[in-house]
């Protein structure tokens, strides 16, 4: 913005000196330069915009954890007693969650589990990997 403003002001003063052999008053040059600067920035932005990268967020919602595979990193989990699990999302970000198994099942450290549903704000229900030969 400042570059356009300065360049337009200098070019305007140069043109006036070439035509009338005297510079214009700053009270006239500043508003005219500002007007042309706004126009120049607008059209330059339209030309440059396609090449500027857009913002792409790698944030995912907590609901998107459901259906993902996680690795149990805590010692042991039973129903009602969750332990820590590590989930890596599609962007490579690591998330640590509290995971607990269904009634009557146990998770131990190193188990791969599938997250089934959200039980509360901090806990998720999971089951042992149903496809150990694939995932």
UniProtKB/TrEMBL annotation:
InterPro entries: YqiJ_OB. Residues 65-124 form the Inner membrane protein YqiJ OB-fold domain. It comes from the Bacteria. This is DUF1449 family protein. It comes from Escherichia coli.
């Amino acid at each position: 913005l400042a570059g356009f403003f300065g360049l337009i002001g200098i070019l305007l003063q140069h043109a006036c000196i070439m035509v009338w052999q005297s510079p214009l008053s700053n009270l006239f040059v500043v508003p005219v330069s500002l007007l042309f600067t706004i126009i120049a920035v607008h059209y330059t932005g339209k030309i440059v915009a396609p090449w500027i990268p857009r913002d792409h967020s790698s944030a995912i919602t907590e609901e998107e954890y459901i259906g993902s595979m996680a690795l149990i990193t805590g010692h042991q989990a039973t129903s009602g007693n969750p332990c820590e699990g590590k989930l890596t999302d599609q962007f490579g970000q690591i998330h640590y969650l509290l995971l607990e198994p269904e009634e009557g099942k146990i998770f131990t450290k190193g188990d791969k589990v599938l997250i089934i549903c959200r039980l509360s704000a901090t806990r998720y229900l999971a089951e042992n990997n149903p496809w150990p030969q694939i995932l």
